[in-house]
């Protein structure tokens, strides 16, 4: 049976209107019990409710902002900003060189949470002044906190509450961190197809590498760095839910997209829990991207090379 993350179950949003929907604690507990996850059921049983057994939305928001604040340390320790720039820098150079694209170039972080990545990029100016930085999340509390932090830090970036694929302006590049494993079954390919059928030129999504050691690594990290049992639980479950390299490349192969994986299994250290990206680029960008990456381009593999690398 697939593993469930508590944070996916205790909030619900209408995907069209963005309105918060009530969630009954008993329903969540039942779902977790049916999956045999009694520990998770006990964690949910300790959350406060109001009338009709509905989980207190303010308490849930406070809890999720707290957990994501602790989770931000994972992005800091894995140097996710630097690693994105290592790829996105050359990718944007390829975009600028290949044609005269509309300006500004627009980077959209899908499911930005507290916006660590967008705020880091804004603070470091790492991608250049012609790149507009936008974080989008369906969760109003998380994206609200992201906007508050950006204001407090005086950063030049924007946060939007809603569906990243409903923005009025087209993205040049979509990115995300720690989001892919939330899409199960056909939803993963649909996620990539939504970007392939948009005017975007590329996407680059980072998620936990599915190695046999990933759940152990995630357990150790979340034990050491996170206090709330919900954060510890979901951290380990997300490593168990991580998609394999093969599954990501298959799902990302949408029409008009060249799917690529950077540092697949076999090219990375299996003792490190890490996030690695799946990319999708318009085919004409592959040659300029490889030129801009130089030697590092050897680490970028398509479906036809994956079998050789992991052998
Ligand atoms: C686990 S969180 C990741 C948060 C953040 N990227 C990080 O690394 O801390 C996944 C988030 O994706 C958001 N999400 C999923 N699909 C989305 C979409 N189509 N548009 C906007 N947000 C989305 C969810 O609301 C959730 O907050």
Protein architecture, described:
The protein is α/β, with parallel strands linked by helices. 46% of the residues lie in helices and 14% in strands. The chain contains 13 helices and 8 strands. Helix 8 crosses helix 11 (245-252) and helix 9 (214-225) packs antiparallel against helix 10. The mean pLDDT is 91. Residues 68, 71, 75, 110-113, 136-139, 142, 163-165, 176-179, 182 line the site of S-adenosylmethionine (SAM). Pfam families: Methyltransf_25. GO terms for molecular function: methyltransferase activity. Keywords: Methyltransferase, Transferase. This is Class I SAM-dependent methyltransferase.
CATH architecture descriptor text of the largest domain = 3-Layer(aba) Sandwich
Indicate the proportion of strand residues. 5-15%
Number of helices in the DSSP assignment: 13
Q: What is the CA–CA distance across the termini?
A: 29 Å
Name of the CATH class of the largest domain: Alpha Beta
**Number of structurally distinct domains:** 2
> Structural class, please?
alpha/beta
- List low-pLDDT spans: none
Strand order of the largest sheet: 3-2-1-4-5-7-6-8
CATH homologous superfamily (4th level) name of the largest domain: Vaccinia Virus protein VP39
Tell me the series of helices and strands, N- to C-terminal. Answer: HHHHHEHEHEEHEHHHEEHEH
- CATH topology heading of the largest domain: Rossmann fold
């Amino acid at each position: 049976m697939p593993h469930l993350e508590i944070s996916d179950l205790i909030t619900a949003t209408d995907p069209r209107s963005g309105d918060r929907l009530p969630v009954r604690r008993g329903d969540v507990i039942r779902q977790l019990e049916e999956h045999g996850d009694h520990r998770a059921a006990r964690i949910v049983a300790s959350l406060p409710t109001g009338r009709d057994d509905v989980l207190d939305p303010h308490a849930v928001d406070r809890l999720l902002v707290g957990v994501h604040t602790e989770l931000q340390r994972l992005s800091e320790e894995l140097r996710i900003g630097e690693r994105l720039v290592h790829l996105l820098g050359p990718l944007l150079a390829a975009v600028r060189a290949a044609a005269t694209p509309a300006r500004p170039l627009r980077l959209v972080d899908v499911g930005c949470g507290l916006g660590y990545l967008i705020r880091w990029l804004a603070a470091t100016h790492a991608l250049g002044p012609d790149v507009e930085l936008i974080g989008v999340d369906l969760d109003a509390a998380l994206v609200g906190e992201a906007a508050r932090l950006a204001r407090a830090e005086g950063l030049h970036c924007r946060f939007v509450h809603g569906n990243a694929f409903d923005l009025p302006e087209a993205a040049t590049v979509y990115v995300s961190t720690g989001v892919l494993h939330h899409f199960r079954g056909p939803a993963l390919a649909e996620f990539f197809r939504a970007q392939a059928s948009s005017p975007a030129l590329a996407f680059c999504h980072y998620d936990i590498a599915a190695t046999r050691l990933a759940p152990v690594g995630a357990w150790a990290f979340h034990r050491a760095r996170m206090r709330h049992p919900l954060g510890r639980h979901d951290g380990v479950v997300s490593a168990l839910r991580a998609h394999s390299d093969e599954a990501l490349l298959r799902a990302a192969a949408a029409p008009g997209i060249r799917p690529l994986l950077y540092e697949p299994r076999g090219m990375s250290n299996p003792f490190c829990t890490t996030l690695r990206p799946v990319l999708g680029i318009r085919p004409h960008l592959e040659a300029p991207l490889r030129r801009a990456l130089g030697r590092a381009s050897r680490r970028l593999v398509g479906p036809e090379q994956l079998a050789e690398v992991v052998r």
